[in-house]
Amino acid sequence: MNECLDKDMFDTFEFRAQGRRPATYFAFGVWLVLSYLAWHTGAPALAWGGLAFFFVILGWWLAANPSAGMRLTPEVWEIHFGPNRWSFPLRDIDSVIVSDSKGRNPQYRLQFTDGAVDPLPAKALPRGDRFSRELRRRGIRLVNAAPPEIG
Question: Are residues 134 and 90 in contact, defined by beta-carbon separation less than 8 angstroms?
């Protein structure tokens, strides 16, 4: 086992975000109520067109169930975002650079030991102290930085 692990830390830390969440099912309930009202009030065709469009978007969201997440093991950091998958050996990672310290739209960049920097999908990463603690326990530094200049 990796010597950087603490005795009270789990071997694997995982995070997953997915499209099927309470808000999605609430939106489906709203669609059902609006459909019921449209049926019983004799709504015009335009209202039915809007309901059909809403149903198609909501149906796609529920069926596709877009997901993102990560798994941090003692040896590897795996990240998935939609159909994309990345795997990074921990020995090759120097630090994680976090931009926007206010936490509204954090941007994450992975700094490798060879100096290369890759952006990370923020939606695939959890926020909070637990995530920071898990990275530090595995020897990955967190560096706060100004957002990268675009242009």
Answer: no
Q: What does the pLDDT look like over 2-35, one tens digit per residue?
A: 445 444 555 888 888 877 778 888 988 888 898 8
Q: Which residue has the higher pLDDT, 112 or 61?
A: 112
Instruction: Identify the residue whose tokens are 């039915």.
Output: 48
Cα separation, 122 vs 91, in Å, equals 22
CB 110 within 8 A of CB 88: yes
Can you give the residue ranges of every domain in the chain?
13-17+67-145, 20-64
52-77: b (≥16 Cβ within 10 Å) or e: eebeeebeeeeeeeeebbbebebeeb
End-to-end CA distance of the chain, in Å?
45
CATH 3.40.120.10 assigned to 13-17+67-145:
no
